[in-house]
Amino acid sequence: MANTGIVLFTILLIAVAILSLYSVHLLLMTAKEGGSLIYEKLGEKAFGWPGKMAAFGSIIMQNIGAMSSYLFIVKYELPEVIRAFLRLEENSGEWYLNGNYLVVFVSIGIILPLSLLKNLGYLGYTSGFSLSCMVFFVAVLIYKKTQLPCPLPFFYEHSSNLSVNGSDISGLYALRHNTTLMDFSRADITPAVTSSRDAHHSTGVHFKPHPDEEEMCRPKYFIFNSQTAYTVPILAFAFVCHPEVLPIYSELKDRSRRKMQTVSNLSIFAMLIMYMLSALFGYLTFYEKVEAELLHTFIKVYKFDTMLLLVRLAVLTAVTLTVPIVLFPIRSSITTLLFSGRDFSWTRHLLIAALILAFNNMLVIFVPTIRDIFGFIGASAATMLIFILPAAFYLRLVKSLPFSSWQKIAASIFLVVGVIFMIGSLLLITLDWIHNPPGSGHSH
């Protein structure tokens, strides 16, 4: 939202949600007529080996991206939670405050055992719990917006290391009106922070009021910059549930296409509301100073805050419990591709899960920013799974409708839009990488 503006973001979010729903409808129709509930098998029936490999490659890429994004959150947030529990002012560099170590421990101790179960049934409970954790996250985000003034001290140059205790938000107001504030964690408060015209009389330091104080706190409705190119791929990435649709469909009680479509409609609508609220209130709290990892931005405002600590724990729980759900389709894709027709083997089941987790841990430790993973995978794999593959499989496998029917024409347009969008997004992201190489520090 900070890179598109409120109105443009809302239009894009709703558009991607509707397209995602239409794409689930195409997928369910194709599964019915194609006679298979396995994505790769549908690809094989439609286009032979290339179709199977396209489905396999897209599912693997998308889900590895999703797993990496969840593990990124563990890497960034878990050290902060431990630091808050130990009441440490700064991250003192001990091994147990190192995100790279912690993500490996969480992968081995929690995610791997959960990934060893044989079917998805039990994950219904953990994902229900995860969802309630995210609702709590959104509620706290809305509450914090009502508590924090604007502009916040770190909006000004050179003052990004100021923070206050969660209990004394009034301190921020005190600072803006040039009263003494002892609650800040650093003594070297920069003169630029104050907005008082006459402050230099009392301090002996001459400094100017900030001219864009109002500008800093004015929401933008339409923004176009080099980062806008990432928006649609990231939104596409956020709405991809397609690899999980068929496995969940196959495990539904009293299975029917209508029932699965209702499940998808409710899920995507719930996500739409939560994405909209978290983006809106995150943006209206920090404006263009909001970071790619929203919770991380709060570290610049609070040293210790119980409510934010609970949110961090809730988000960590949610993402940790979601990783095994995402691992399932990757493992079943690998099993279908390499070991189809073989009997179930616990050793193979364990080894594949361990290898997938090891690969994801390497990605999370060595890739500089979460946005680079989101952008690239959103533009490639997510576009394949939302637009290109469901439309192509539908056109090829649904024989009950003539090609001139409006359903087939709509699917053809959907396919063309997907191809244009994929090429355009990859081109814009590549250009941005050329001008601002990943890891160069240019993140907004």
UniProtKB/TrEMBL annotation:
It is found in: Membrane. This is Amino acid transporter transmembrane domain-containing protein. The lineage of its organism: Eukaryota, Metazoa, Chordata, Craniata, Vertebrata. Its main location: membrane. The chain crosses the membrane at residues 7-28, 53-74, 95-116, 122-143, 263-286, 306-328, 349-367, 373-397, 409-434. It is a multi-pass membrane protein. Residues 1-144, 220-426 form the Amino acid transporter transmembrane domain. InterPro entries: AA_transpt_TM. Keywords: Membrane, Transmembrane, Transmembrane helix.
